[in-house]
Every structure is written in structure tokens, then in C-alpha cells.
Specification:
- The protein has 363 residues and is an all-beta fold.
- It has two helices and 24 strands.
- The chain has a single domain, classed as Neuraminidase (6 Propeller), CATH 2.120.10.30.
- It has helices spanning 3-7, 90-93; strands spanning 10-16, 21-31, 34-39, 45-49, 53-58, 61-62, 81-86, 95-104, 107-118, 121-130, 145-147, 153-156, 176-179, 209-214, 221-225, 232-236, 274-276, 282-287, 300-304, 309-316, 319-326, 334-339, 345-349, 354-361.
- It has a five-stranded antiparallel beta sheet, with no helix packed on it. It has a four-stranded antiparallel beta sheet with strand order 3-4-5-6, with no helix packed on it.
- The radius of gyration is 19 Å and the shape is globular.
Length: 363
């Protein structure tokens, strides 16, 4: 069924990387700020639009009607309908998970629901997570979703633009969340028995994580997060670890360039695996395991909103040994990057006229 995507694709540009040429194919366009995607077993693709709509690509064509039955979504600033992921046992339980910004007492925050797609309606919807407290303003919702091999669900959160929240265990913002697939709390979560801490939290000290991926062969969970002016980070997520924001950072205050916190290092706070100065504004992330580009096997790919790049990282023993910037603004702001069931890479461009693009070999 995935071959149908190729049938309706329009050939676009050819690009040259260090060791391979590739071309992009437009699968669909006219998306309104697409944010996340998930591949269904029948070859169709679910796409979230930050403006509050869940869309479906059927046989390579965008269904003109959005899916109904979604929860009430707050479209504010960087918030809206955000990520989508299938349950690992989707074949049997048909569960789809959505993250989104929601209004409530105090302002707005990230929430997660699960439900089932029946025709063009999202049904049997159950809310399984609410980030607390809700905060005013429309920045830093995080909201990427990832199921680990043990069936636990990770939810990335931002600190909602109020940096000190990231160091407060009594608040969700600025942490990585780990819950069971039904929203209950795993018995081995690191802060479960700490008085006043939020038991769903798995880490602290994160600014705004918008990429999360599982590394093949190690089952390590990697994330990247937006820094301030400079200081975007790539991290391996470990239970109970403090990633430092805003006490330590490789970034500086916007505009003034003045120092944030106490510098770049402090005992008890971990260092990033890799960081970017100047910032690339990373969003979306995947470790490539397909056969379309064997040259890129096990490489990490991330989108860049700031430069419109696809960033390729070669990793060896937990260290970034090479970085290559691809595409370089030719397609627009790259919001998400995923590997499709056909082994190709798929991109979403975060624009008023956003696109779903497929990367295939150009040789």
C-alpha cells in the first residue's frame, strides 16, 4: 500500500549530500502548519495541523475533510494540535494518541488523549495526561510523543516560557514525562517517592523539547531541545537526571547576549551530547534504519525550523562524530522528520501552505 504514495508524488528538487544524491517528492500540499505524522498499517498517513485539525492522506491524496471528534484544542502561539503516535499494539487495539494545547485554570498546558479512528471520526476518546500547572502565554509546549520498547509513553514538555519552572519537581513544565499507556504511573519512575514531586516526571531542567527518538541497538531515548539565543541541545534521557536549564546553558539572552544562569557547567547537572551555537531551532527527530539510504544507516536526522535544513548526525558510542546540513532552506521550515514503512524519509514543512515530502534516492 505504501507504494501508492509514490504514484501520486510530484518530483521536486534534487540535492547532493556528501555521499549520496537525493530528491524530494511532494506527496500533498496545502496543509496548515503541519506538526506531526503517523503511518497507519494500511499505508495511509495521519497528519496533525497546529491550527487544530487532524488530517488523513489516503492512497497518496489528502482527504479534504478533517477528522472530527477531537478534544477542545487551544490554538495559541506555539500551541495547538501537536503530535500523533500509534500504540505499539495498534493492530489489536487501534489506539491513536494525540498531544495538544488545552485551556484551563491558570492558562494553557499540554494534554494527551487516546482514542480510535472510526471512519472519519475520533471516538472513545480518553484523556490520559494533563501538564500542571497550566500557565499563561503561548510558548514552549514541547509535546512530542514516543513509545518505548517496554510500552511506556514518553511526552516531551517545554517550561512554557517561564524558565524557573524547569527546576521545580512540583511542576510538569520543563520535564520529560513517562507514563503507562493508560495514563497511570510506572512503579519505577524516579521521582515517585519524593515528597511534592510530580510522579509522572522522568527528568528536569529541560527548556523546550520538540524531538524524541529511540536509538536502534541501544534502546536509549534521545531528545533535542530549543535553547535561548544559541544553545540548542541533543541529550540522552536518563531517569532522574537534571539537564540544567536555566542554571546552565550554552545559550544567552535574546537580543542583549547577556549570560543566563551560572555558566555552562555545574556539578549535578548533565552536559549535552551535542549543542548548536548559533541555534538551528530543531524540531522532529528520527534514527534512520531503512534501506533506501544504506549510507545513512543509524544516522540521526532532525529538522531545522530556523534554517530550513535537514540535519544529519553520525553517532558513534554516544558521541556525534560528524554533522551535515542538507536542503538549506529550499523547502521552508522543517517541522517533522520520520521514517516511513517503505524506508524513505518523510518531512513536514511548517508553513501556511505546508507540505508532506518524501526523500528518495536521486541517483
Amino acid at each position: 500500500m505504501t507504494l501508492l504514495l509514490v504514484t501520486h508524488a510530484e518530483a521536486d528538487e534534487v540535492f547532493q549530500a556528501a555521499d549520496v544524491s537525493f530528491k524530494t517528492q511532494t506527496i500533498v500540499d496545502k496543509l496548515s502548519h503541519p506538526w506531526g505524522m503517523a503511518f497507519l498499517p494500511d499505508g495511509n498517513i495521519l497528519i496533525t495541523e497546529r491550527t487544530g485539525r487532524l488530517r488523513i492522506v489516503e492512497n497518496g491524496k489528502l482527504n479534504p475533510k478533517p477528522i472530527t471528534g477531537l478534544p477542545e484544542i487551544a490554538v495559541i502561539g506555539q500551541g495547538g494540535l501537536l503530535d500523533v503516535v500509534l500504540h505499539p499494539d495498534f493492530k489489536n487495539n487501534q489506539l491513536i494518541y494525540l498531544s495538544y494545547a488545552a485551556a484551563g485554570a491558570g492558562g494553557y498546558g499540554t494534554e494527551v488523549v487516546c482514542g480510535k479512528l472510526k471512519g472519519m471520526e475520533f471516538k472513545e476518546v480518553k484523556k490520559i495526561f494533563t501538564a500542571l500547572p497550566k500557565v499563561g502565554g503561548g510558548n514552549h509546549f514541547g509535546s512530542r510523543l514516543l513509545f518505548a520498547p517496554d510500552g511506556k509513553l514518553f511526552i516531551t514538555l517545554g517550561e512554557r516560557g517561564e524558565q524557573d519552572r524547569a527546576q521545580d519537581l512540583g511542576q510538569h513544565p520543563g520535564s520529560l514525562i513517562r507514563i503507562n499507556d493508560d495514563g497511570t504511573i510506572p512503579e519505577d519512575n524516579p521521582f515517585l517517592n519524593i515528597k511534592g514531586a510530580r510522579p509522572e516526571s522522568y527528568t528536569l531542567g529541560n527548556r523546550n523539547m520538540q524531538g524524541i527518538a529511540l536509538q536502534p541497538g541501544t534502546n536509549l531515548v534521545w531528545t533535542h531541545e530549543h535553547g535561548p539565543q544559541g544553545g540548542d541541545e541533543l541529550n540522552i534521557m536518563r531517569p532522574g537526571v537534571n539537564y540544567g536549564w536555566p542554571v546552565i546553558t550554552y545559550g544567552v539572552n535574546y537580543g542583549t547576549g547577556t549570560k543566563i544562569g551560572e555558566g555552562t557547567k555545574k556539578e549535578g547537572m548533565t552536559q549535552p551530547i551535542h549543542y548548536w551555537v548559533p541555534s538551528i531551532a530543531p524540531s522532529g527527530m528520527v534514527f534512520y534504519t531503512g534501506n533506501v539510504f544504506p549510507e545513512w544507516k543509524d544516522n540521526l536526522f532532525a529538522g531545522s525550523l530556523k534554517f530550513g535544513q535537514l540535519v544529519r548526525l553520525e553517532i558513534k558510542d554516544g558521541i556525534v562524530v560528524n554533522e551535515e546540513r542538507l536542503i538549506n532552506g529550499a523547502l521552508g521550515r522543517i517541522r517533522d522528520v520520520r521514517q516511513g514503512p517503505d524506508g524513505a524519509l518523510y518531512l513536514l514543512t511548517d508553513e501556511n501552505d505546508g507540505k508532506l515530502l518524501r526523500l528518495v534516492r536521486g541517483d
